Amino acid sequence: MHIFIDANIIVIFLIFRHMKARLLFSILLFLSGVELNAQNTFGDWLKRHETNRREQIVKSRVNQDFTKSDLGRYGSLLTRSVLNNKYYPPKVNREYTYYDTDGTVSHKDFYYLEFDSLGNMLLEEQGDTYRKVCSYGGVEGKMKLSETTYQWNGKEWVEYSTDSSFTTILNEKGIRIGINSHIVQEATFNEKGYLTWICESYGSNDRAKVKISWKDDFPSEFCLVSYGDSLLLKNIVPMYEMEKLNPYLCFSDDWDEYFFNSDGDNFSLFNADIVIESEMDEDGTSVLMKGHVVSEYDAEKKQYIRTIKVIAEEQGAEVPMLVETKTYLDENGSFSYTYTSVLDDWTFTTTKIFNEKGDIIKHESKESEGDYVYSSIYTYDRTYDENGLPLNTVFERRDDKERLQESYIETYGDRIIPDTSLEVEVDMPGTLREKVWASSMESDEITKLTVNGPLNEEDLRFINSDMWKLETLNLKHAKLEYISNNLFSWNEHLISVVLPEGLKCIFDDAFAHCSSLKEIELPSSLNYLSGNVFVGCHQLQQIICHMPAPLDLETYNDPFGDLDKNMFRLRVPDFSLLDYAEHSYWREFPNMESLEEVQESMTLNGSLHVDRSLLEPVTDLTLGYGSSLTLDGSGTFSLNSLVMQQGDSNLREWFYDSYHGYPVEGRPLASSAIVTNCDVTVADMEIKYACRAGNWYFLSFPFDVDMSAITVEKIDTTLVGSIGYVFRYYDGAERALNGTGQSWKDVTEGVLHAGQGYIFQASMEVYLTVRGDMDSGMQMLTPASKEIPVSENISNYASNQGWNLIGNPYPCYYNMNGIDFKSPITVWNKDSWTYDAYSILDADEYVFAPMEAFFVQVPQGTETIHFMPEQRLAKAALVDGKWTTRSMRSVSGSRSLINLRLTDGTYADKTRIAFVSNASAGYDMQEDAAKFMSPVAAVPQLYTLDNTRLQYAINARPFIEGGSVRLGYYAGSAGEYTLYADKADVDAWLYDAVTDRTVALSAEGYRFSSEAGNFDNRFVLRFGAAPTSVKEERSDVACEVTSADGGILVKGQAGEKVEVYTVAGVKIAELPVEETGTFVPLTKGVYVIKAGDSISKSVVY
After folding, report:
1. 33-52: pLDDT as tens digits
2. Alpha-carbon distance 610 to 614, whole Å?
3. What's 765-823 look like in SS3?
C-alpha cells in the first residue's frame, strides 16, 4: 500500500505539471495555426513539446480512474463553501467505495480528516497506512506553515519525505523568511512574507522557477519557468474577484493553478501583458509569442470572461486563443465554468451547484477534444440536524453512461475506527481469494478474518501472503484437515488464531517464529502435532486445547520447541485436567487451567473414561482412529450424531498437499471403541472403515445395515479409475453339504445383519461407510448382553459341520473369554494374510477388534452364542510397543501344547498340537480346529494331518510316548524355510524324509529347502523320549551339512574329509572341510554326504 500511495503522488505531480504546461502548449499550437515565422524557426522545438503534450494526454486517460478519484476526493474539499461565514465540521470520517466497470465493488478506503474553523485541512489519514499533518498561520490562516507525511510501519507512525513535505521558517515577528523542503533549492520573501523568488528541483531534467513582483497585496509581475520555457505576465492589473488570491502561496504549482485555473473555483480576473519565451540553446532565449490577458464582466449575464489574445505580427492583429467564462447561477454561489482552447478544439466545462448553506450538492464536468469526450456527474446528498449542522453526506460519481464509479459516506465527529474485519462464506476450496476480492475490502487492510466453509492449501497461503496486517484469524467454522510445513511461519502480525473443528494435523514449523502470536486455540479433532510448530513464538500467552484426551507427544519432537512453558497458560477440558496433569509430556506445563465450556461438536483422538454428565453439552461426537471412550453414570446421553472411525492400523492417513503437489503422511488408521455403561441415544450413526487395497476384511456390523446405505470412497482422491469391491458371506450349509471350496457367496443387495460376519475387499484404498438411524444406535450402544444366532449345518463329516461366520456385536474391543462358547475360533489375520486358530480351553487370549468377524464351529443343538458385556474393552492389549489384538499365556492343568510356526522370512503360519488326556484321535469340534488355507498364494501354510488326510490348525489328541503325527506344509515358492517351535511343553523330534534326518525341534528353528507346492509326506513329528537314531547322530555327527543355492555347505572340524555320492553310489567329490566351511557346487538332485563317520542325505534345488 505504501508503494501505491507513492505512485499516486507521482501521478498527481505529473498531472499538475501537465496543467502548468497547457497554456504554453496551447499558445505554441496557436502559433503553428496562424503560420507565424516562429514555426519555421523553431520547428524542432514545437515537435518536441507537441509529442510531450500528446504523451501526457494518453497517460491521463490511461490513469483515468485515478484522475477522477482524485477530483472526487480533493475537489470536494476545495469546494466545501463559497460563503465567508461557513461552518466547517472539524472532524470528518469518509468511507470510500470504488467500483469496477461492471458495477461490482472493486475496493474500499477509509479516510479521517480534520479541519480548522477556516476550512484548512489539518489532518488526513488513509486507514492506518498514510497520514498527512498540516499547520497554518498568517492573516486569516491563509499561510500554510508545514506539511508532514507519515507511514505506518505496523507499530507506529514514521515520518517520511515527499515532494509536498515542507516547513516554513518565520522570524520573531511571525513573518515568513524561508522554507525547508528537499525540492526547494532557493526561495526569497518580501517584508510581508510574500514569495518573490523560488527555484524548485524535481530531478535533473525537471525544474521550475517562479519570480514575483508585488504591488500592495497583488502581484504586478509574474514569471514562471518550467522545462526551460517561460511564461511572463507584466503590468498585471487586478480586475474582479481579487479575494480569490492567497498572497501566501509558495510553490510553483500553487501559483500556476491560481493564474491559470481550469476548474473555475479560484477564478481571478486581471489584465496583463503576456510573453512566452523558449531557450533555444545555452546562448540565449527566443520570444515565441506576445499577447494580452483581458478580463471582462457582463453584469446582465452575471458572467466573467477571461481571454488570452495572441498578437499575430505578420497579420497585425490580436487573435483569441484561450477563452474562459464563469457564470454565476444563483445567490448560493453556484456557477458554470468553461475553458476553451480555440485552436485545438479542446473544451472543458464544469457546473457546480451549491445549497443555501454553501455546500456543494452537484457537480457536472465534461471534457472534449476531437472525438474524445468524457463526462462525470458528482452528487452530494447532505443531511443536517435541526440546528442546520451537517449530519452526513453521501457522495456518488457516475460517468456519462450513469455507471457508478465511486462513492463515499461522510460522517462528522470523532474518528471512527474503520471496520477492518471480514467474514467470508466459502463454498469451494481454493476460492477464498476471489471471495475476498468480491467483498470490496482490500486484502492488505484486513486485520480480522473469519472464514466459514472448506479451505485448502492455496487459501491458507493467500491468507499468509496477502493479508499482511492480519492480527486475528478465526477458522472455527472452516473446513480444513491439515496445515502444512512452514505455512504461517515468520508471520509478524498474527496475534490470535482459532483453528477449526475437523483439523487433524499441523506439520513442522507451521507457526514458527510468529513473533506477535499470543493465543492459539486447538480443536478437539487435532490428532497430530509435529515438531517445532510454535518454535520462536515467544509472545505466546495462552493455549486453548479442546482435545478431550491429551495427544501423545514427546519432548524430542516438541511442538513448542524453545518456549518456556512457565510463561503461558494451558487450558484443557475440565474433565480431562487430571489426564493432562499426569501425562508424560503435558505435565511439563505448570500453568494448567480447566476449560469449563464444552463444545457441542467434539472429536476424541485418545482414551477417555468419563461420567456422561460431564459431556452433556456435546451433541455431535466423532471417535477418531485409535480412540476409545468409556461412559459411566446414570441417565441417558443423547447425541445428534455419532461418527466412529475404524480401520486398519497398517494404513496411515494421507493428505494431498495441493500447493506442493505431494501427499503428506498422517497417523495410523486404527479402530476406535466406545464402552457404554449408561443409556445412549443417537439420531444419526456413521461408521467409517479404512481398508487397504486387495486386503480381505472380516467384518461384522453392530447394527443392521441395508446395502443401499453403504458408500465406498477413495482414500486418495487423486487416483483415477473406478473402485471395484465385493461383499461376501460364508455359506456354512454349503460346506456341510459339499465340503470346502464353494462356501463364499457374493452379497449384492438386502440387509447385512448385526452380529453376522461378512468379508469385504476393494481394488484400491477406500473408506467403507455405513449409516444408521436412532434404532441402529440403540441396537449398537446398549450395554446389555448380546446373543448372536447360529446354524447347526448338520454334515456327514464332523470337520464340515456347524461352521458359522459371526462377529463382535459391540462397538468396542472384546475379550474372547467373554463368550459362552469353549470350542476353538478361527480369525483372519489381515497382517499375515492367513488364518489363526485360538482355543479358550488352551488358555489362549484373544481380543476381538470392533466390527471383527470370526469363525466358530458350533455343536449340534446350539442356536445362539452369548456375549457378556463384562468383557468389553476400551483398548486391545499392548505388546512390544505395538497395538495388537492377540497375546498368549501359559497353559495350566492337564493340557500340553506344541505351537509350531513356519516362515519364509516374509510371511508365516502357525499350527498347534494339544495333548489332552480325554481327547480322541479323530476330529472333535469341541477340541479341534480344521485348517482354513490362506487364499494368498505367496503365504506358506502349516498344518497337521490325520489318517484321513484332514488338515488341522489345532489338533487335540491324547499323549502317547513315542507317538507321532504327520506335519504338512505349503510353500508358495521354492526357497529356504524355517520351522520353529515357539512353545513345546513336551519333547518333540522332527523327522525330515528328504534329508533322512531327525532333529530336536527348538525355538532356534529347523532350516530347510523346498520346492513350491503342498508337501504332506516330508515331515513327521514324534513325541517323548529321543529316538535312538537321534542320540547316535548327536554323538557321531562331526559336521553340519545344509543345502544352499546350487550346492551344499559343510561346516565342521577343519581338515575333516567330506565325500559326496549320488543316490546310485557314485562318488562325485572329495575334499577337506575348511575353517570357514566348504561349499560344494552341485546340480539339482538328492545326494549322500559322508563326513567323518556320519552319513546324511541332502537335497539340492
Report:
1. 433 333 333 333 333 333 34
2. 7
3. CEEEEEEECHHHHHHHHCCCCEEEECCCCCCCCHHHCCEEEEECCCCCEEEHHHECCCC
How confident is the prediction for the chain on average, in pLDDT? 83
Q: Measure the CA angle with vertex 1008, ends 1006 and 1009; round to 5°.
A: 165
Burial state string for 370-395 with b = 16 or more CB within 10 A and e = fewer than 16? eeeeeebbbbbebeeeeeeebeebeb
907, three cell numbers: 510371511
Residue pair 632/612 in contact by the 8 Å Cβ criterion: yes
Q: Which three cell numbers stand for residue 268?
A: 481571478
* Residue 183 Rama label (left phi>0; alpha psi -120 to 50; beta): alpha
How far, in Å, are 125, 150, 253, 273, 950 from residue 5 at the CA level?
12, 11, 20, 40, 91
pLDDT of residue 1041: 75
Strand partners, 350: 337, 365
Mean pLDDT, to the nearest integer, of 900-915?
A: 96
Q: How far from the centroid of its chain's Cα atoms is residue 727's Cα?
A: 37
| 130: its cell numbers | 498514510
Q: What single letter denotes the amino acid at residue 588?
A: E
Angle at alpha carbon of residue 716, lines to 711 and 722, rounded to 5°: 55
Confidence of residue 661 (pLDDT cuts 50, 70, 90): low
* Contacts (Cβ under 8 Å, ≥6 apart) of 510: 483, 484, 485, 486, 487, 488, 489, 530, 533
Confidence of residue 7 (pLDDT cuts 50, 70, 90): very low
**Amino acid, single-letter form, for residue 435:** K
Instruction: Name the burial class of residue 942, with classes exposed (0-12), middle (13-18) and buried (19+) by CB atoms within 10 angstroms of its CB.
Output: buried
Q: What is the pLDDT of residue 743?
A: 94
Comparing 192 with 369, the larger pLDDT belongs to: 192
Q: Give the span between the Cα atoms of 754 and 248, in whole angstroms.
A: 95
SS3 per residue for 130-176: EEEEEEEECHHHCEEEEEEEEEECCCCEEEECCCCCEEEEECCCCCE
- Over residues 1057-1073, the mean pLDDT reads 77
Whether residue 609 contacts residue 633, with contact meaning beta carbons closer than 8 Å, is answered with: no
Spatial CA neighbour of 915 closest among 898, 933, 934 = 898
* Nearest one of 17, 110, 24, 5 to 56, comparing CA atoms: 17
**pLDDT, tens digit, 9 for 90 and up, residues 827-838:** 999 888 999 999
The contacts of residue 527 (CB under 8 Å, 6+ apart) are 504, 505, 551, 605, 624, 625, 666, 667
Residues with Cβ within 8 Å of residue 643, at least 6 apart in sequence: 621, 622, 623, 686, 687, 688
Q: What is the pLDDT of residues 291-302, one digit of tens each?
A: 899 999 998 888
The grid cell for 793 is 449345518
* pTM, full prediction: 0.65
d(CA 367, CA 387): 39
pLDDT tens, position by position, 226-285: 877 888 999 999 988 777 788 999 988 888 888 876 677 777 888 999 988 876 555 566
State the Cα angle at 363 between 358 and 369, rounded to 5°. Answer: 145
Distance between first and last Cα of the chain: 79
Q: 873 and 812 in contact (C-beta within 8 Å)? A: yes
pLDDT of residue 456: 93
CA distance 1069 to 139: 128
Cα-based torsion angle of the residue sequence 734, 736, 740, 744 in order, rounded to the nearest 10 degrees: 30
> What is the structure's pLDDT at 152?
82
Q: Which residues pair with 407 in a beta bridge?
A: 97, 396
Q: Report which residue type is found at 654.
A: W
State the burial class of residue 1045 (Cβ atoms within 10 Å of its Cβ: 0-12, 13-18, 19+).
Answer: exposed
Q: Residue 369, class by beta-carbon neighbours within 10 Å (0-12 exposed, 13-18 middle, 19+ buried)?
A: middle
Query: In angstroms, rounded to a whole number, what is the distance separating the alpha carbons of residues 393 and 96?
Result: 12
Cβ atoms of residues 221 and 230 within 8 Å: no
* pLDDT tens-digit series, residues 991-1026: 999 999 999 887 789 999 999 999 999 999 998 876
